[in-house]
Amino acid sequence: MSTAPSNYGILNKALITLIAMLGYGGWAFYSNVPANGDIELQAIALRAGIIQGGYSGILTLTQMILLQAVLKHLNQRLTINLNMIATITIASALQYAIIIPVHLANDTPNILMTLLPGFVIGTGFSFGYLLSIKNKYY
Questions:
Q1: Do the beta carbons of residue 21 and residue 57 sit within 8 Å?
Q2: What pLDDT digit, counting tens, does each position of 25-47 carry?
Q3: Where do the structural domains in the chain lie, given as residue ranges?
């Protein structure tokens, strides 16, 4: 069993990260672009898209790295089913330990509503990602 990252694994991570950046960044731009064509507001919408895209890309790549590291670390200690649950829980807790304070510092009014869609999508993504790599460790 080789633990060195393959080119295939690196390309997959890069592609998934790029999709997250473009998807979430594009949504942030689209959600904020003004209907009246105001140049100043278009610049703000573009900035929102770049910020959200960058943030999403970093979080997606970090999550994949965390998931793989935790799954690998626990593979001798737990069955695959328990390992996947523990891995998703640990990796998500680590990420949200960063995300929640950022929103608290920003005074985001509805943190739960803000984070809930991403949590649902992220948990589904994490589960799917673990299914795709579990055979490397079990």
A1: yes
A2: 898 888 888 788 888 888 888 98
A3: 7-136
